[in-house]
Amino acid sequence: MNKKIIKICVALIVIIGITLPNLPSQAKAEGSSYQEAYRDQYHYSAQQNWLNDPNGLIKYDGVYHMFYQYNPNGNEWGNMSWGHATSTDLVHWKEQDVAIPESDDNAWVDFWMKTKDDAKPVHYIGRPTTNWDVWNPNGKRYIFSGSVILDKDNVAGFGKNTLIAYYTSTYQVAVRGDDYSNDPWGNLLGIREVQEQNMAYSTDGGKTFIKYNHQNPVIPVTQVPTGDTGNFRDPKVVYDEANKEWVMPLVSGQEVDIFTSTNLKDWTYQSAIQREHDVGNGVWECPELIPMKVKGTNQTKWVLSLSVQQGAPAGGSGMQYFIGDFDGKKFIPETNETIKNPQWLDYGEDFYAGVTFGETPGRTIMLGWMSNWNYVGEQKTSPWHGEMTLPRELTLVQNGEKGYVLKQTPVKEVNKLSQGTVRLGDRKINAVAKLDKTSPITEFSGTQYKVSAHFSWKNNQKPNRLGFKLRESEDGSKFIEVGYDPRNQLVYIDRTTDGENIPRKNSQVKLNGDPTSVKLTAYVDASSIEVFVNDGEKVLTQVAYPNPEHPLDTKKLSFFAGSGKVKITNAIGSHFKSIWGNNPTIMGPSYKALDYGSPFNALDGIQAQDPKDGDLTSAMKVSGDNINTKKPGIYRVNYSVSNAAGVTALHKLTVLVKQRDKK
User: Fold this and answer.
1) 42 dihedral zone (left: phi>0; alpha: psi -120 to 50; beta)
2) 32 lies in a domain?
3) Which end of the chain has less Cβ packing within 10 Å, N or C?
């Protein structure tokens, strides 16, 4: 990520006087509680400190490795290093030690170069630094985004099955001209940012990395084709099976530059992909060339995915992609209009820097950072800052006018977190007035869950809006709306009524045609919502901090519709377990047989416990059938309890009331 972006964002906040939400924070608890307000319970975040772009995603020896941009020393952007977490199932992650720390004690820089802004070559000379202070350089270089590959055949010479990381080394250095009349070093022109591509390798399965060649780059900044020394970054290396070589796309301002190698150390520039959409509106970042089979065929297409700092559909940063072919040297867009008309991976405000895992044959799994550079400063969580999306399985399908499109669904491993499916019941909403009509979901509540339903209507009874009200307060005044506007064919997430006082509802996407039905599936966590439309046809990702004064008063949910008739079917909910171990349990029998007329107490023999909060029995909620022991039959009682982290546990009891004895 570019430090200049942070400086600009902070300056804008100061200049225009944006008021940030006063989110509650909680000091780091003893051990790793992961129970702080708004801590996502099934999306990954670091235990503490700043996190952004995922880097170097790879599966090796049965373990998924997630490296990422990380500040080991604070909860703001800075000291950029590679953090590290591992998983055996893509869901439960264990944070590891920092994998590649920022470089320090770097040797002097000394080279001449003519950039796009220079009339003649200038001298880059001096001690590198990350503090933008030409007189007091700190000798450091940041470790920016990149990738990891598995060198199965010892191509690079470090040994078979070595993990090799490629990353952007970023620093500033003094720049001087060739006028030595007043200074033997030349006239000082100032200080500039430099970005180069470096290499590190691990022979212990990713636990530690050795920086290659005394931290000297494998692609120095002098090889940047555009002459843009401060925007030359984010190597994502992939193997091109057809041409038996390694391919490294890099961004350089308004283009993607493609380099190739056969030995993983020496890289040759081959071609460039020029930006043709929204040119100059920020820069491209995090490029990736992904070979993918078209579903149902043996045809391989190449997907070029990119992150954009500005110009995404919901405003600010986001991700786009293009379909084409690759001939070993250049990317060939599907049509002459392809690069002019990007497709978007996500239409919410908070999906950025997504890249795919290496070494997952037959699967294309992408992970992204949930944030937006436009308002990242609003996320005042503590002691951590930033979280990842759910890993998503990408499928490339043929789709008429679009040619090819990507469909996205959460990886199947996410289902391991489900505590079972709760059927929410079919229903109809007849909203004849202009105001919305709400149908509460009384049998399901919480802050971490999946909820899904199929909504349908007739054209002559078309509503103006329909969907879910999620994360509702008890009094119903605060909520997040996930809905569909049939009259404009727009799926949307509206968080203007969630209590944050942020007038923003930019997350929306238009569906093709004029459908008379839509399926909405939302994955809801403590501070995030991922909405998959029609099983992944479109996706919207949104970070939110509902009801800041009372974060746990956000558990209710409802269906709603406005000015029309809606039929709701296949409505289900599923509470999700915490990946951090914040999981309460309800203990007790699941079946009881009662004699006719005998007393019954729903809490007899039922207890709720939490590994961190202790006894929660008094906080249990009981619902279900009213048991009349003078009326024989089968009854069902439902129990639920939530802990301090907002994680819900469920329990069911079946009660048989026996027939009256005949004497």
Assistant:
1) alpha
2) no
3) C
Q: In terms of domains, do 604 and 647 share one?
A: yes
Q: Read off the pTM.
A: 0.93
Cα separation of 491 and 520, whole Å? 9
Catalytic annotation on 117? no
Task: Note whether 213 and 198 are within 8 A (CB).
Answer: no
155, 263 contact by CB (below 8 A): yes
The number of folded domains in the chain is 3
- Bridging pattern class, strands 49-60 and 384-385: parallel
Give the 3-state secondary structure of residue 460.
Answer: helix
Q: How far apart are CA 259 and CA 266, in angstroms?
A: 10
Same domain, 443 and 331: no
Dist. CA 429–CA 125, nearest whole Å: 71
The answer for residues whose C-beta is within 8 angstroms of residue 446's C-beta and 6 or more apart is 555, 575, 642, 646, 647, 648
Could you tell me the mean pLDDT of each successive run of 10 residues in the chain, 663 residues long?
A: 41 32 35 84 97 98 98 96 98 98 89 93 97 96 98 97 98 96 94 97 97 93 94 98 97 96 98 96 96 96 97 96 98 96 97 98 98 88 96 94 91 96 95 85 93 97 96 95 97 94 85 96 97 98 94 94 96 97 96 96 96 94 94 96 92 95 75
* Listed residues 556, 575, 594: the one ending a domain: 575
CA–CA dist 560, 429 (Å, integer):
7
Q: Which residues are paired to 512 by β-bridges?
A: none
Whole-angstrom distance, CA of residue 642 vs CA of residue 471: 14
Sheet bearing 392-399, strands edge to edge = 352-356, 365-369, 392-399, 403-410
Does residue 383 have a cis bond before it (omega within 30 degrees)? yes
Catalytic residue among 53, 257, 610, 613: 53
Q: How far apart are CA 494 and CA 649, in angstroms?
A: 28
Q: Which tokens sit at 209? A: 């990395």
Task: Considering only the C-alpha atoms of the chain, give the largest distance between any 2 of them, rounded to a whole number of Å.
Answer: 120
**Is residue 327 domain-resident?**
yes
Provide the token pair at 646: 């907002």
SS in 3 state form for 365-384?
Answer: EEEEECCCCCCHHHCCCCCE
The CATH number assigned to the domain holding 514 equals: 2.60.120.560
Q: For the beta carbon of residue 76, count every other beta carbon within 10 angstroms.
A: 14
| Strand residues in 264-414 grouped as ranges (E) | 268-274, 284-293, 300-308, 318-326, 331-333, 343-344, 352-356, 365-369, 384-385, 392-399, 403-410
DSSP state of 619: G
Distance of alpha carbon 607 from alpha carbon 588, whole angstroms: 7
> Among all chains, which residue has been given the structure tokens 């070595």?
162
CATH classification of the domain holding 338? 2.115.10.20
How far, in Å, CA of 579 to CA of 60, rounded? 21
- 221 inside domain: yes
Q: Which residues pair with 247 in a beta bridge?
A: 238, 260
* Domain coverage including residue 634: 585-657
Facing residues of 240 across strands?
Answer: 245
Q: Which of 555, 575, 595 is the last residue of a domain?
A: 575
DSSP state letter for 553? S
CA distance 199 to 192: 23
